[in-house]
């Protein structure tokens, strides 16, 4: 970002009034949450693939005693789902219900903190609207104190109101875009994990027979 563009942005920020500070905090939160979530999903996909591949290898070689060692340092959210696959102590119906609960826990883990993006997306326009109302109130206040009306009297307050409104909408749009993107990515990641477990379970059951 060039110096001129940066100075222009700072000037607009100042013109937007005090309401720009919470909107700035929202913007920072959006990027922090999104980047953290992308890194989390990438790490989960890598680890899930590794442990599924290792578990599949153990099943293929029928060295099931190695399972305990494999899951010793495995993330709990992955290990629980794997344990559900290899638990033979219950009926088929109980097994499916237990596995579904573990998958639901995995899905909840992947969605953790995403509610913040949804909250920002829904509340940012109202924060900007509050700035609009504040700017209009300041306009009437200036008209009352000067005893005359005119664009020159209220230009500053109207500018503040418009900037606050536009900033609130912009923050909300960005939050919605990232929220929808992450929702799709979480769903795809959870689906891939579920299918890989299903394939491994089928292979395990075929060996038992």
Overview of the structural elements:
With 209 residues, the protein is mainly α. The chain is built from 7 helices and no strands. The chain is rod-shaped and about 85 Å long. It has one domain. It has helices at 3-15, 20-61, 67-70, 76-86, 92-110, 114-146, 151-208. It comes from Bacteriovorax stolpii (Bdellovibrio stolpii).
Gist?
Keywords: Cell membrane, Membrane, Protein transport, Transmembrane, Transmembrane helix, Transport. With 209 residues, the protein is mostly helical. The chain has 7 helices and no strands.
Task: List the domain count as a whole number.
Answer: 1
Helix content: over 70%
3D shape = rod-shaped
Average pLDDT number:
80
State the separation between the terminal residues, measured CA to CA: 64 Å
- SSE string, helix = H, strand = E? HHHHHHH
Largest sheet: none
Structural class: mainly alpha
Using only C-alpha atoms, the radius of gyration works out to 27 Å
- Beta-strand content: under 5%
The number of distinct helices, counting runs of at least 4 residues, comes to: 7
Q: What's the multimeric state?
A: single chain
Give the strand tally.
0
Tag the structure with descriptive keywords.
209 residues; mainly alpha; 7 helices; rod-shaped
